[in-house]
Design goal:
The protein is of the alpha+beta class. The chain has one domain (2-137): 2-Layer Sandwich (Beta-Lactamase), CATH 3.30.450. It has 3 helices and 5 strands. The protein has a 5-stranded antiparallel β-sheet with strand order 2-1-5-4-3, with helices on both faces. A hairpin with a 4-residue loop joins strand 3 (60-66) and strand 4. The longest helix has 23 residues, at 25-47. It is globular, with a radius of gyration of 15 Å. InterPro entries: Longin-like_dom_sf (IPR011012), Sedlin (IPR006722), TRAPPC2L (IPR044760).
Length: 139
């Protein structure tokens, strides 16, 4: 079950961060901290050399790191926009996570293609939020 979803901009600025777990504001702050800490793991994975020079990079980064209660997964676009999902038990299989991230990325693309959206500003679109919630609830 996904408990938090985040979109992080090129300059590591949060564009969207939503929690899907009932709780106090301390829980929301905890997820902000987890997502922020995951950015170091994303940078480490991006710095790893490719297996061969012409090999295309995989946008899905996989498991970034586990915490005591959650597992954090990542995905990065060609433009260095990062998608972070914090997952509770049971953890979806790797192929399921890839599909979730692809759907999350597609929802992001739809949101930023809006001519009224300013690049690198928070995503406040209600349709984007509804799309993300639909993706999360289909698990």
């Amino acid at each position: 079950m996904i408990v938090c979803a985040a979109v992080i901009g090129q300059a590591n600025n949060p564009l969207y961060l939503e929690t899907f777990q009932q709780g106090s504001s301390d829980d929301a702050l905890r997820f902000h901290y987890i997502v922020h800490c995951s950015l170091d793991a994303v940078e480490e994975k991006l710095a790893l050399p490719r297996k061969s020079p012409g090999e295309p990079s995989d946008a899905y980064l996989g498991l970034l790191y586990p915490t005591e209660d959650y597992k954090v997964f990542g995905y990065v676009t060609n433009t260095r926009v990062k998608f972070i999902l914090v997952v509770d038990e049971p953890v979806p299989k790797d192929e399921e996570m890839r599909m979730i991230f692809k759907r999350f990325h597609a929802a992001y693309v739809d949101a930023v293609c809006n001519p009224f959206y300013s690049v690198n500003t928070p995503l406040t679109s209600s349709s984007f939020d509804a799309s993300v919630r639909t993706i999360i609830m289909t698990l």
